[in-house]
Write a structure and sequence with these properties.
The complex is a heterodimer of chains A (213) and B (219). Chain A is mostly helical and 213 residues long. Helix content of chain A is 52%, strand content 10%. A two-stranded parallel sheet of chain A has the order 1-4. In chain A, helix 4 crosses helix 5. Chain B has two domains: 91 residues, Cyclin A, domain 1 (Orthogonal Bundle); 82 residues, SH3 type barrels (Roll). The longest helix of chain B has 15 residues. Chain B is globular, with a radius of gyration of 20 Å. The two termini of chain B are 25 Å apart. The chains are: A mainly alpha (213), B alpha+beta (219). Chains A and B meet through helix 2, helix 3, helix 8, helix 9 and helix 10 of A and helix 1, helix 2, helix 4, helix 5 and helix 6 of B. Strand 3 of chain A pairs parallel with strand 4 of chain B, so a sheet runs across the interface. Chain A: It catalyses: an aliphatic primary amide = an aliphatic nitrile + H2O. Chain A: Belongs to the nitrile hydratase subunit alpha family.
Chain lengths: 213, 219
């Protein structure tokens, strides 16, 4: 508790002020110079930030997965042409121009990484989390995926195969986790509640219905 | 290029430390950095491949100690200077000193929704048929260009199997340097863990990359 309190109090803010002072100044200088030149519209920046804070996030991907779980025709379409299937739900655009869906099975678990930068399907998962973009995940996901998964609290059976997808081109991957047991009769909305962001990257599984209840 | 960005398989970079209920942004400056970067991308002066190359060309010590939006920001400064939009003197002063290059377009607030929804598709028609077929064994080339490439180091000179022909895409190795889009077929090539990491690899592991045709040769 005391750590938490400290994190929200003076010490936290002070730490960040010091840590980020150089970069804060650089970003401020950039925005000021470009605005004075008429090259950027600060309101456009606000609109971009608002889009990714409130409109585009992992809820989009959860709806795709829930549709695939409950509709075999959609699931087939998603396997065949994920870009079109996902676009049919209205999720298109930047960093989701070319989509592939990869399905977990009883035999195989899929994990997505971009070792070269941090390619990520923004249009269905929103902006990537810090750990996805940071060197520890990018370096280890391809060489030690089980170790990586254990740091997310996910221990897979030893016989479960692991397939790592390194996003080296412009294809963006969406993992379709296995549908949890005990969800017969769930509608799409209820199913979507079980789909976490991490389960669509492969660093987690879908939640079991008991967790949500 | 063999830069600090090419991280697959490196050791010693620490624990992953996932954050519970992580926010999209950890500071206000990150929001502005994202927005400024996307606005400048809309100028149409450089490609995503050129911007990736600017990021991977940062000095390794800078790249590895910077947060992601700091990497973006530092690379953006380089791109803006390279294309004549700002000068170092202006970045130092934090204000406009001279006019500079005119962009093809300026992103206004009312354009944002449309531009983000459109994205920037980079699939292109490729006239000749694909050289490789699904199920074929292929070997990745062994090259170490100083220029941009999207073949990771860990996957060079390795033998794998073509799992899918993904279509024709802009070739980043050329496009990053203004040498044209020169689209090529892209293939998903899957490797056994042991082919990449040796005998000690997890026996259940397979790793795939998406490889442009010129990265591959017949076995």
């Amino acid at each position: 508790m005391s750590e938490h309190h400290h994190g929200e109090g003076h010490g936290h803010d002070h730490h960040h002020d010091n840590h980020f002072s150089d970069i804060e100044a650089r970003v401020k200088a950039l925005e000021t110079v470009l605005t004075e030149k008429g090259l950027i519209d600060p309101a456009a920046i606000d609109a971009i930030v608002e889009t990714y804070e409130t409109k585009v996030g992992p809820r989009n991907g959860a709806r795709v997965v829930a549709r695939a779980w409950s509709n075999p025709e959609f699931s087939d379409w998603l396997k065949r042409d994920a870009t079109a299937a996902i676009a049919s739900l209205g999720f298109t655009g930047r960093q989701g121009e070319h989509m592939r869906a990869v399905f977990n099975t009883a035999d195989t678990h899929n994990l997505v990484v971009c070792t070269l930068c941090s390619c990520y399907p923004w249009s269905v998962l929103g902006l990537p989390p810090v750990w996805y973009k940071a060197p520890p995940y990018r370096s280890r996901a391809v060489i030690d995926p089980r170790g990586v998964l254990s740091e997310f609290g996910l221990e897979l059976p030893a016989e479960k195969k692991i397939r790592v997808w390194d996003s080296t081109a412009e294809l963006r991957y969406l993992v379709v986790p296995e549908r949890p047991d005990g969800t017969e009769g769930f509608n799409e909305e209820q199913l979507a509640d079980l789909v976490t962001r991490d389960s669509m990257i492969g660093t987690g599984l879908a939640l079991s219905p008991e967790v949500v209840r | 290029m063999n830069g600090p960005h090419d991280l697959g398989g490196q050791h010693g970079l620490g624990p992953i430390a996932p954050e519970k209920d992580e926010p999209y942004f950890h500071a206000e400056w990150e929001k502005r950095a994202l927005g400024v970067t996307l606005c400048c991308g809309a100028f149409g002066a450089w490609t995503i491949d050129e911007s990736r190359h600017a990021r991977e060309s940062l000095p390794p010590a800078t790249y590895l100690s910077a947060s992601y939006y700091e990497i973006w920001t530092r690379a953006l400064e380089i791109l803006l200077k390279r294309h004549g939009f700002v000068t170092q003197a202006e970045l130092d002063a934090g204000r406009m000193l001279e006019k500079g290059t005119e962009p093809k377009r300026v992103l206004k607030a009312e354009m944002v929704a449309g531009v983000l929804a459109r994205g920037g598709p980079c699939d292109r028609r490729v006239a000749p048929p694909p050289r490789f077929v699904v199920g074929e064994r292929v070997r990745t080339k062994n090259f170490n260009p100083e220029t941009h490439t999207r073949l990771p180091r860990y996957a060079r000179a390795k033998t794998g199997v073509v799992e899918a022909v993904q279509g024709g895409f802009v070739f980043p190795d050329d496009n990053a340097h203004g040498w044209g889009e020169n689209p090529q077929w892209v293939y998903t090539v899957v490797f056994e863990g042991s082919e990449i990491w040796g005998e000690a690899a997890d026996p259940t592991l397979t790793v795939s990359i998406d490889a442009w045709e010129s990265y591959l040769e017949r076995v």
